[in-house]
Amino acid sequence: MNLEFFIAKRIFFKKKRNFSAGIVELAVAGIALGLAIMILSVAIVTGFKQQIQNKVVGFGSHLIIENFSTNSSYEVTPIDKNQPFYNTLTQIDGIKHIQRFAIKAGIIKTETAIQGTILKGVDSDFDWSFFKKNMVKGTILNIDTGMRTNDILISEYIANALNLKLGDEINMYFIQEPPKVRKFTIKGIYNTGLDEYDQLYLIADIKHIQRLNSWSSNKISGFEVSINDFKRIDEMQKKVFARVGTVFFDDGSKLKVKSIKETNPSIFEWLELTDMNVLIILVLMTIVAGINMISGLLIIILERTNMIGILKSLGAANYSIRKIFLYNSFFFISKGFLWGNLIGIGLALLQFYFEIIPLDPATYYISSVPINLKVFDILLLNGGTMLVVFLMMLLPAILISYIEPIKAIKFN
C-alpha cells in the first residue's frame, strides 16, 4: 500500500477532531459554496444567452439573403424567389433550413386605438416550430401555395393593447400611393416574451404583401436561413455568401447576406458582456477556494509539526511528507467539490423545473431565471477548478522542507 496515502487517509478519517477541524471544515464549506456559485453562474448565463438567441432567431433566422441595396426601410427591393441556390443551400454542412419571406409596414386601427406594426409574409416553406412553442391561443396558419388566406397571427402584447381576441377581424392600413387597407382574421395569438418584437410583428400569408406591393407571385423580400450551431454563424455567413454572392441581376444588382448579429447588434453585444461577467466570477471563486484551502493546509501542517519531525527523524524525505499533506488536501477538496456539485446542481434543477425565481419580461425578455445545465460544462468546471486549487496547495506544502526535525519534535 502507498504509505503516504495510508497516513493521509488516517489523518482525514480520524474520529478525534483537533483544533484545526473547524477551520478546515470552514475551508471545505468555502470550496463547496464557490463551486456551487460557479455552476449556477455558468448554467444561468448560458441559459440566458440560449433563450434570447433562440427568440431573436425565431423571428428572423440566423442569416438573411436579400437585395444588395442601401435602403434601410421596410420597403425593400424585391428579388426573384426561384433562385438557383434555393434547393441546394441546405446541402452545405451546418445549414438547417431556408425559407422565403416578405415584410411591409402598416397600421392596425380599431375603434379606440391604433398600433404601428410590421406585417411579415411567409410562404408554404415556413418553419413554424418557434411559433408553435410560443402559441398562447389558437393555431398556426395554413399557408397554401395556391389560395390566399386572410388568417393572421398577432402577439398577446398587441391583442391586449388593442383589446383584440381570437377570431376578431382587424383592419390594417398601408401608407402608400394609393393607400390600401386589408381585413384579416385573428387565428392565433403568440407570446415570446421578447417585447421588442412582440409589439411589432404580425404573421400572414406572403401573397398579401405581393399583392399590396404589386409584385408578381415570384417576387419576395428575401430568404431566411437557419443553421445548426449559433457559434458557427460567422463561418456559415461566409459560406452562404460564397454561394449566393455571385448572383447578379439584369440591372447589375446582387444579393447580400446579413447575420442576425448585424441586424440586432445591441442585443448581441449585451449578451457578449455576460461572458465577461461569468469569467470574473469563475476567477474570483477559484482564487477564494484556493486561498481557503491554503489556509486550511497551513493550519494542518502547523498542527502536525511534531509528526513531521518524527517522520523526518525516521528518514522520510521531504517530498514523501509533502505527498501526505497533498493527499490530505485532496480529500478535503473532494469533499468540498461533492457538496458544491450537490448544492449547485440541486438548486439549478429546482429552478429549471419549478421556476422559483421570476424575472420581469419587459426588462430581461424572459419570465424566469433560465437554466442550461450541460454535463461537459460541469465536468470542465470541476476539472479546471480542482487543478488550479490543487496546484495552489503546492505553495504551503513547500514549507515542510524548512521544518527541522529537532525543533519540530520539541514543538508543542
Description:
This protein is α+β, with helices and mostly antiparallel strands and 412 residues long. Helix content is 50%, strand content 18%. Strands 1, 3, 4, 5, 6, 7, 8, 9, 11 and 12 form a ten-stranded mixed beta sheet that branches. Strands 2-10 form a two-stranded antiparallel sheet. Helix 9 packs across helix 13 (375-392). The mean pLDDT is 88.
Individual helix count: 15
Strand content: 15-25%
Shape: elongated
Supply the number of structural domains: 2
- How helical, in percent, are the residues? 40-55%
Average pLDDT, to the nearest integer?
A: 88
Count of individual beta strands: 12
Distance between the termini: 31 Å
Order of helices and strands: HHEEEEHEEHEEHEHEEHEHHHHHHHH
Structural class, judged by helices and strands? alpha+beta
Radius of gyration: 31 Å
Low-confidence stretches: none
